[in-house]
Amino acid sequence: MLEEHIEEIDWDGNVLAVWPRSELKKRLFPHNVSLIIPSENGKLLLAKRSANKHPFPGVWCCAVGGKALAGETPESCAYREMHEEIGTTVPLRHVVTANHKGPATYERLHIYTTAENLSADNIKIDPAEIEYLRHFALDELQTLVQKQPDSFAPAFLTALRAYVAAEYLK
């Protein structure tokens, strides 16, 4: 199987170079999609990352997320990752794009949401990616982020702030 290639981009999303996925952790600033999924009663569906995921194993993050392949649009990436990680595809809506500069990553986050609510009960997860899913009320999530920020992937915190600002603080 051929190795996947990922585009390195600048803060404006312009392609600078294309690298094999194996080089990803060494030098890359990629397009990344983050899918924030609403569920029943206005809650958000999050994923506990597998203990084998690098970086940030065993922390909370978006239920779906990943790097866009070379030549792939962020929207196409979001649909591909949704199918791979939770075994379903539903209509998506782009919410906002945000830049993330964290301790181990630089990413341009394309944040999407689903056009319909999803329940963890109806989702098939990939255990290599996700340990389990859980629904969080927004106020519960904000309290947990304040008390235990290390329980969350840093890029997820950037995505969550951008999502809340775009969806709730209009």
Q: What does this entry look like structurally?
A:
With 170 residues, the protein is α+β, with helices and mostly antiparallel strands. The chain has a single domain, classed as Alpha-Beta Complex (Nucleoside Triphosphate Pyrophosphohydrolase). The protein has helices at 24-27, 74-86, 138-147, 154-168; strands spanning 5-9, 15-20, 31-38, 44-49, 60-62, 64-67, 92-101, 106-114, 130-136. Strands 3, 4, 5, 6, 7, 8 and 9 form a seven-stranded mixed beta sheet that branches. It is globular. The model has no long low-confidence stretch (mean pLDDT 87).
List keywords for this structure.
34% strand; globular; alpha+beta; two-stranded antiparallel sheet; 170 residues; Nucleoside Triphosphate Pyrophosphohydrolase; single chain; 25% helix
CATH topology: Nucleoside Triphosphate Pyrophosphohydrolase
Task: Please tell me what the overall shape is.
Answer: globular
Query: In DSSP terms, counting alpha (H) and pi (I) runs of 4 or more, how many helices?
Result: 4
Structural class estimated from helices and strands? alpha+beta
- Element-by-element helix/strand order: EEHEEEEHEEEHH
What's the domain count?
Answer: 1
Can you tell me the CATH class? Alpha Beta
**What integer is the average pLDDT?**
87
The end-to-end distance, rounded to whole angstroms, is 46 Å
Q: Count of DSSP E strands? A: 9
Query: What does the largest sheet look like?
Result: 7 strands, mixed
Question: CATH-wise, what's the superfamily?
Answer: Nucleoside Triphosphate Pyrophosphohydrolase
Which value, in Å, is the CA radius of gyration? 15 Å
What is the CATH architecture term? Alpha-Beta Complex
